[in-house]
Structure of Asp/Glu/hydantoin racemase:
Amino acid sequence: MRLLLLNPNTSRDVTELMRVTGAAAAAPGTEIVTMTASRGVPYIATRAEAQIGGALVLEMLAEAPRPDAAIVAAFGDPGLLGARELFDFPVIGLAEAAMLSACLLGGRFGIVTFARALVPWYVECVAAHGLTGRCAAVRALEGRFASLSDVQSEKEDQLLDLARAVVAEDGADALIFAGAPLTGLGARVRDRMPVPVVDQVVAAVKLAEAAVALRPRKATAGAFRRPDPKPTLGLPAALAARIDGTD
Amino acid sequence: MRLLLLNPNTSRDVTELMRVTGAAAAAPGTEIVTMTASRGVPYIATRAEAQIGGALVLEMLAEAPRPDAAIVAAFGDPGLLGARELFDFPVIGLAEAAMLSACLLGGRFGIVTFARALVPWYVECVAAHGLTGRCAAVRALEGRFASLSDVQSEKEDQLLDLARAVVAEDGADALIFAGAPLTGLGARVRDRMPVPVVDQVVAAVKLAEAAVALRPRKATAGAFRRPDPKPTLGLPAALAARIDGTD
Amino acid sequence: MRLLLLNPNTSRDVTELMRVTGAAAAAPGTEIVTMTASRGVPYIATRAEAQIGGALVLEMLAEAPRPDAAIVAAFGDPGLLGARELFDFPVIGLAEAAMLSACLLGGRFGIVTFARALVPWYVECVAAHGLTGRCAAVRALEGRFASLSDVQSEKEDQLLDLARAVVAEDGADALIFAGAPLTGLGARVRDRMPVPVVDQVVAAVKLAEAAVALRPRKATAGAFRRPDPKPTLGLPAALAARIDGTD
Amino acid sequence: MRLLLLNPNTSRDVTELMRVTGAAAAAPGTEIVTMTASRGVPYIATRAEAQIGGALVLEMLAEAPRPDAAIVAAFGDPGLLGARELFDFPVIGLAEAAMLSACLLGGRFGIVTFARALVPWYVECVAAHGLTGRCAAVRALEGRFASLSDVQSEKEDQLLDLARAVVAEDGADALIFAGAPLTGLGARVRDRMPVPVVDQVVAAVKLAEAAVALRPRKATAGAFRRPDPKPTLGLPAALAARIDGTD
Amino acid sequence: MRLLLLNPNTSRDVTELMRVTGAAAAAPGTEIVTMTASRGVPYIATRAEAQIGGALVLEMLAEAPRPDAAIVAAFGDPGLLGARELFDFPVIGLAEAAMLSACLLGGRFGIVTFARALVPWYVECVAAHGLTGRCAAVRALEGRFASLSDVQSEKEDQLLDLARAVVAEDGADALIFAGAPLTGLGARVRDRMPVPVVDQVVAAVKLAEAAVALRPRKATAGAFRRPDPKPTLGLPAALAARIDGTD
Amino acid sequence: MRLLLLNPNTSRDVTELMRVTGAAAAAPGTEIVTMTASRGVPYIATRAEAQIGGALVLEMLAEAPRPDAAIVAAFGDPGLLGARELFDFPVIGLAEAAMLSACLLGGRFGIVTFARALVPWYVECVAAHGLTGRCAAVRALEGRFASLSDVQSEKEDQLLDLARAVVAEDGADALIFAGAPLTGLGARVRDRMPVPVVDQVVAAVKLAEAAVALRPRKATAGAFRRPDPKPTLGLPAALAARIDGTD
């Protein structure tokens, strides 16, 4: 099966980090292909950036060769529900996959990330997935970091301290180090944490495999049926074709 | 005060309908200026379209001369939270204004609209505003309509029957005819409905006036502070400048 | 339009403070008339006092010349739902107006007040309006104050510190200084607060204007239709007439 | 122990019906004394009437000789929380007692009553007690009735049909025939209902006995401590004394 | 009436402590008989132990002579809902009774217990009863204790400090010292606590009396009707007979 | 990896049906071993049976050779949380896996099953997983069936009609045919359903593979740490050893 790992950020090294992590966890026969946004921001951290990045996700999915399933590879899942509505293959969000996997390992999960700006967006993401009751806390480091691609090592000690606080003070039964740049951190520090750690990319790849194994048909009813065709103006060609039904 | 009524749809006649309705309700001294999207779809009806339209809202707000307040004039409020975060004047959503106004007039409001595709998006909009407990129902007509700008007269009888059902069966204490093309319908049929009717544009103009009267400062803390500057790639110039802080 | 600002407390100087603040924010053409309770307590602070004060609200509304809209001018909104049910003009609560306005300016609002006794009642008021999910915290100063009409200046520093804590610790995106005696405080300290501040009386006047602009009819169905006439015993004449239908 | 059964309605025959029912269920040693409102309405059915009736409850409790516990004997519990705050003996609501007892007998209870006007108030009462999740439905007969004191026999067949619908369609596991005039109906029809029936007065007497058996002290902290003394104006003497602390 | 107080733990001295406390609160005519588990653990503290203990509850209830009502005398209520479904007399849980009684005495109750392991199970118990909104906090002592039957005196000071913190910090209006070994503690320390204290066994006995007074029939519809007979394999004889309908 | 598919029911043919379905979906390298209960009932359908079956799950897990992960293969997940607490390998519930997988494919899932008795237990299972907000409905056929192992073909038409109603009337975006005897039905009828169908066993196997891929450590903190050792009386040897820490 061919999984499209779509990074709606412009940071190609983060895409590569996710590809390597995902490939190591994939089942035999799973091929991971990647796309990285050519417009936008290095990492989506706010609602405004998620609005823009989510629209890019739709453009990119329309332009990509049809995969067996796609992963929206930014924690926060920009554009996820629109993509699930518009396309006929499974689309999985990085946050969604990490949270649902964490549900398998305990009662409530804690989300730990590297930048304060991310917190409101993540909190809304948890709520949009109906998982607020399963979330012990969303916490972030204060302060700036030197380099996005190195933030997980630069801030490792602080991130681990914060994660321990989320367990001790907020009662998390499982931990998610959230945000694409933190991919792989969990595997490295797993034995130093007092509860199970979910790697967001491993979760996304395995849940995408699960979704494909279920061989779901495209809904023809309900909230995720393909919208009726509609004329468009000025949209990128592939996306326009998907919306106006000429694809 | 200058209110920017921003229609993220491409339908200019709907913009004009909203302008006329809003101007009639505005206080002396309130000037309403409009913008209509030059890209996108005639009316946003799905999550995918809202994702795209919400990104356009940010572009358009960045390009417009600074107003005293802006109205995102599509029920469903595409891009609202991102806009509230990114800009330093009040931004009000059409759905938000209609729902909060309806809260003043009863316990639970009912939302009635003209196309089934809108329902999941509207339901999510209600939830995103934390108003699910105040919403009796979201219901839509089945079937197609001939013309967007005439849908409110073409379907008037069916819309009124549906609204009466929302009162009788779902227990709505107030009604919202939702979707920009239904602007003005409420005023026309008010006396035939058994509960108060909220016109979405009247509500948005009056609540925008209220927001300006409160003279709110831009948050420097919390979830709606302006995000830290960040480099961008390939975004429209004005929006890029707002995000990278060079505006 | 004529707005009745009804203070169910016996403190006439607080009524005047609210009138002045409201008049400054009113649109041209809005006239504010006031009533102050001749029975009861100087300021309602507990559920028992709100029970008594809410019954007075109904008496006073029945006795007043019919306004275009009325404001129940005590934070906590004593008697509001009964009034909305019994009378055929819009009735707006001070708390309701402040909270709904705060919703326009951010995600979650914080309520800060001057006396601990108020907190349980305010918390129940937030819940009764279905806005618990939008409320970051309700916090009050400990300790006594010298004079009700001067409490906002006497306690200004402590109130501001508490408000800052509600932003920093509870995550409020907007602030309400709650309780009629704090009217006007927000305007004075707005620039020292890190998030927008809502003045409760400004909010109530502007939302009452909005309600009138919507020209709502009296419900003839649902939870806010006028109750069927019913005989009464020993009630004040105007209220009795409103209940037994002889008014 | 001496239980005060306080009817905030003016209907003395309903008070007597409740006294007889309660006395039959009371433990040896429990004496039931009654009070009936001398002002107000024959039966409280709306929020406005509950606001007035709840204030009467406070007056009457202040005037009554101190009981071991009191029952606010109107379903809907007017004035209950204020009374619990103001007085130092247990005060139990008729609705509260019926609902908490029903919780003992199944998962979700259904409330059936005789007049449509009662429904919004009862729904708010369920919510105020935090029991919405335990309530399958609140349903009422449509139409008028001839006499309050005979409504339970006049409408018996319709009430039973409605109760059966609440079980079959709404999934109630226990039933409450709500409203003081329906006292005793449950005992008479118990064997014709498919789920356990709770008599509101039996429940209130037994839970009042339970509250007394727990020998609870008056709170000196939290939301039900006695409010600090406060001057009053124009209130009935006993209530004024309780509020200003001179009792 | 004959109440069966069933201890699903193996600690006979705790059973006796509960019998004595319950008997002192029982009405004239109430006889309390006890059973203590002959298998299992000294005190159930985890979900796994509750799973096992709950199955024992069903076995023991099937083997006991039919009582007028039964009390599952372990806080956490193992097996309660299954028992309520399977048997035709009222079955009351210790936690359920304590929590519902606490609801009569204030807004939100606090649960204080002696061992950290109990907390997750208790939290789930509160949620299973739909009372999360009425629960201020569940808190437990850290550290080990010397003897189960003496834990309430050994740890009295710490338990009282913790209880005071639950009032001051979490806002509890009533307190429950939870866990069968703490039976009787509340009565002893009542006057040293700032809010009413509910003894779990007193509550259970009085609510069992209330349930019997309501003379509830066994449901023949809904979620607590007796399940249809079903063949069993290898279960204890009395329980098998109850399930396969040959009892 | 070795997955233990543990059927807490006594029906061996249903175990085999699940094994075959699971094996077909498993990744290369995944071996599925099974256990079937030797005590209990043919299929767990009530809370009482789930209480007993859940205790058997713990016994059986203690006796089985340690797997890489285990599946509690009864929809309703008897004993799941206790097992997750007690054992140090991932334990996945059939209902949990089906529901979390359905979350990937739409907004709200619908659960359709073959016997009315199952509904209350399933509803509680949904709530216990915190997924009530993601569940459109739980519905069951009325009436009896001839044979457990053939129920899916005997009742196929009725089940499909019911499933279509859950989509059309309750708004389900994905469907789960729930209950071990319905394993494989979804795959057979997938193309006749208007929304994606989740097979519970396929979901459980793929999510168990995901859980193993995450290589979670056993929690040493939080609600799923292994309980402290505790003496036991009369429990099966392997389970006793796991609880008293001598394993």
